[in-house]
User: What shape does this take?
Amino acid sequence: MDKEAALQQVAAITQALEEVTKGLKQYATVIQESGGKSDLESIGQVSQSHTDLVSGVRTLNRASRGPVDMVFAQIEAVAYTGAVRALLEMGIFEKLPLDGTGLSADVLANELRVERDLLVRLMRVAVPELFAEPEPQIYSHTPYSMVYLHPGVRGAFKLMLGEYAPVFNKLSEFFKDSGWKSPQSETNNPYTFTHQTKGLTMWEHVKLDPDYFKIWNAAMNAQGIATSFAISIFPFKTELSKMETTEETVLVVDVGGGLGHATKQVKALCEDVKGRIILQDRPEVLEDITEELPEIEKMGHDFFTPNPVKGALIYYIRRCLHDWNDENCVLILKNIACSMTRSSRLLIAEIVLPATKADVEGAWMDLTMMTFTGKERTEQQWGDLLKDAGLRLEKTYGMPGTHYGVVEAYLT
Ligand SMILES: C[S@@+](CC[C@H](N)C(=O)[O-])C[C@H]1O[C@@H](n2cnc3c(N)ncnc32)[C@H](O)[C@@H]1O
Assistant: This one.
């Protein structure tokens, strides 16, 4: 790099650093004022200022590394994730003591029955981000490695890498073969192409191996729990309290509610409002529920068929529609709409992408969904789907700092 270019880089780094310093001050102020509070506005402010800070750090990282090094950063990231996955399978994470004391490469290799040299080479890639190496080839846990011991986090990591990293690698091959357009077929999409599913959909394919399916479910559940803060974006209690209800009134039907994690929270948010709460999903999913769900009725239902509950006040559908293409979403929505009355409303709890400047999570989630024909949607796209299903979008509820939102709709 010549001197002029280097000076320009220094100027860019200086500017990015100033932004990070500003962002950090802002974050610290917000934490002082709103940290630890559980109201949505405070959670939103903390989340927004943290997102801004991380975005500033990304810009600083980019400015410091420069354009060429940023190309190689991608290879670095691929090698890193590959090494972490291999170390997970090797068993290092379980072997290292949880109190932070270290173990030598010799001991680890011996106890895990692996080649010492291979272990050292993998750890060389993983250590700077993940483990500590207080002395040469003595390794210990840090909070960044311990987090992989959480089954949900580990499941999500393994799922994303095992299932989707190969698919992302094959995206260009798939599109070159089948045309540059969003895939619409359940049995011919980047996922089925990469995994050679032989006519099975992704949903059928992941069930082939029961052990793998367990990891899959743990990961899905973990993601649901991670986004559970967003359930209260819709003011359930305030809205339902405005209605005259009896013990017989169906307050909420949670369509495609899975194991009922969100349903339980909805129930808590509707405390003191008289009425019923119903959890619907496919019968085989409901059979897997092991925990007690007090005062929640379970009902087997395929959401591609008309909803058997007529005239509920709220039909709630969370994190389901993003799995499906527009055509299937309209079918699902029509099968809810046909059971709604004028006093029913539909709530879609999903990511609502902004028209521009989506956050990193929204963007990668959308691309992941795309690999099997699903989609994250903007408010405009939600509105179009609703219209096609005979519904009208009334309002979109959101909160700063996240794209998770709730789209409210009524019969047209
Ligand atoms: C990502 S999970 C969301 C679960 C839950 N709503 C939540 O937010 O945690 C998608 C759910 O859609 C359900 N689902 C898929 N196909 C379905 C169908 N044909 N009828 C009913 N539910 C279905 C799945 O069983 C799963 O529970």
